[in-house]
Amino acid sequence: MSEQDIKQKIDQLSEELESHNYSYYVLSQPTISDYEFDMKLKELMELEAKYPQFAHDNSPTKRVGGDITKNFQTVMHDYPMLSLSNSYSKDEIVDFITRTEKLIEGKCVFVCELKYDGVAIGIKYRNGQFYQAVTRGDGQKGDDVSANVKTIRAVPLTLKPGDFPESFEIRGEIVLPKSKFEILNEEMRAKGEMTYANPRNTASGTLKLQDSSIVAKRGLDSFLYGIYSPTKMAQGHYESVLKAGSWGFKSPDPKKKMIAQCNTIDEIMDFINYWDLERAHLDFDIDGIVIKVDDYNQQEQLGYTAKSPRWAIAYKFKAEQAVTQLNKVTFQVGRTGAITPVANLEPVQLAGTTVKRASLHNADIIEKLDVRESDYVFVEKGGEIIPKIVGVDLGQRSPDSVPFEYAKVCPECGTKLIRREGEAQHYCPNETGCKPQIIGRIQHFISRRAMDIEGLGEETIVQLYNEGLIQSLVDLYRLEEGQLLPLERMAKKSVDNLLKGVEDSKKQPFERVLFALGIRYVGETVAKKLAKYFKSIDAIQQATLEQIEDVPEIGPVIALSVHEYLNNPIHQEQLNQLKEFGLQMEIHEDEKSSNSLNGYTFVISGVFENHSRDEIKALIEANGGKNVGSISGKTNYVVAGEGMGPSKRAKAEKLEIPIISESDLLEMIDQQ
Ligand code: IVH
């Protein structure tokens, strides 16, 4: 065969296999036998191995995996990945419709679709080719899991000819079918290994596996629920979802009632009631129905809150219940010393998974339910990973059962537990000597939303603690190459990464440091408010309890927690040492407030030369401006750095929004 013939053969086999794949996995209508398919695939693999110069990046052979991803690259989303607000009753949906139509000042058509219970994914296409798949991450940035997503047969690698935009993104959900989940767990049981908890978590774990050939074998599936493109290709959501179906995506089928346009609340409720019963027959989990305003113009008009679109709402199905025996109550110790009682149950099937443990929350709940060991209990699964106990079947209670006695000492370190007046939780006060508290605190400190220390993960923290290298947050900054290199799984490269990550964390802004400390009740929002109000750790430390309570939206419970934390000599010493290591304990001079950006809305995109993205955002906010995640008619400026997404740029240009640089922004602030 001439080279020309070989290239042609590779092209033809690729196209043919992708088309069979589509028939099988998207349409569920196989066109050839599995054997014939495997033979053709084998032929293509052999040709590609011999003539790699002709192999396509998106060849159907990628579906069997083989690519290994050591570190998933972090990628900024072109459009933030938000969540949905939830509703649980017809009344709440009626409220949503009324609220929406009032804002629109007119009628809306709504689209109902399934709320797939899996992992969100954004898949970008360029010129009809799969380009990149990114996980939700923190909503602003996620991990590039392209090699793994390419193995999912329902995800097209090359689109069918059609009027798709040159560059666009498909948002959808990756799920592990229930049948595949069962097979996987049977294999685990056969090997005597731990089984997986539920399909959603397994899908999430599978997507982050380093070896894509294992991912390929697990049998993930994917459903689309949104199309994001700088150019509008349809009037509304319904039309564009169906259009995407014609390009080769597995889009919900109206004939199977997987999607419907609804004009009235009754039509919406019919859809909900239908799926509340029918969902048991699906081979994947759904946890509700999503109701969306169909028309794109109306969607734009409605816009977004900080967390979710105003044009959509999720209706969550009522949780399923099961009855089982409570074998034993054990206690877990959290990073703040909070004790959580856990019910260890006789394994029971609930909503398609085996449940062995349930949370009992605190002593009050145990007392209120009067749960006793050996009781038969009602277990319910809501949105949480851990199910909860909602009642006791008193009819089955043994006559010699005795009320449950709550733990008096910490199960980990034996210290006497304390419980403050008015608080439901018991605490172990042994902050500096109780292992799960120390480890949990350091794990929180390094986490993505806190100090975001790259090169350090939760497992490594456990390892470093067990090796006696870290006992406190401060010890992280004392780590040295010589101590780390001899440890297991620590190659030179990982040690370099770890130390660089630790060093880089010294630049994290003050508000993050404040959050990372893990002060009880101080989440990201409270940390931001405190940082903005007091501007330095010294100022918060010097503040009286009343002065902390003066901060808008900070109540007495949070204020007391902050005040006590900062007045504890152990913490004061730790803060002094962190300060000496160079951590940011105040807001920078140039971040101090002005009103120069008052009334302006910014979208930031890309990576900047002199500031981190968070620093840029903090600067905008400190000077009165507002940050939003996606470009709309209401955006005043787009601050562009290196690697700004092309679709974002196109959108900004289309809407004639000025695209400015980092230094332009600084100038705008300086001029005042
Ligand atoms: S639309 C702006 N539609 O639910 C958010 N989401 O709680 C637009 N999900 O993270 C989301 N099925 O991963 C949408 N039919 C559906 C969905 C769906 C499942 C997930 C999605 C999102 C979460 C929101």
Q: What structural class results from the helix and strand content?
A: alpha+beta
Overall number of structural domains:
6
Bound molecules: 2-(butylsulfanyl)adenosine
Oligomer state equals single chain
Overall pLDDT, averaged?
A: 91
Low-confidence stretches: none
Quantity of strands, as a count: 20
Please summarize the sheet with the most strands: 5 strands, mixed
Q: Any overview of this molecule?
A:
The mean pLDDT is 91. The chain is globular. Strands 2-11-10-3-9 form a 5-stranded mixed sheet. The chain is α+β, with helices and mostly antiparallel strands and 672 residues long. It has 6 domains: 3-64, Helix hairpin bin (Helix Hairpins); 76-316, D-amino Acid Aminotransferase, Chain A, domain 1, CATH 3.30.470; 321-396, Nucleic acid-binding proteins (OB fold (Dihydrolipoamide Acetyltransferase, E2P), Beta Barrel), CATH 2.40.50; 435-507, 5' to 3' exonuclease, C-terminal subdomain (DNA polymerase, domain 1), CATH 1.10.150.20; 510-580, Orthogonal Bundle (DNA polymerase, domain 1); 601-670, BRCT domain (Rossmann fold), CATH 3.40.50.10190. It has 25 helices and 20 strands. Helix content is 37%, strand content 18%. The protein starts with a helix and ends with a helix. Bound molecules: 2-(butylsulfanyl)adenosine. Residues 82-84, 113-116, 120, 173, 225-226, 290, 309, 312, 314 line the site of 2-(butylsulfanyl)adenosine (IVH).
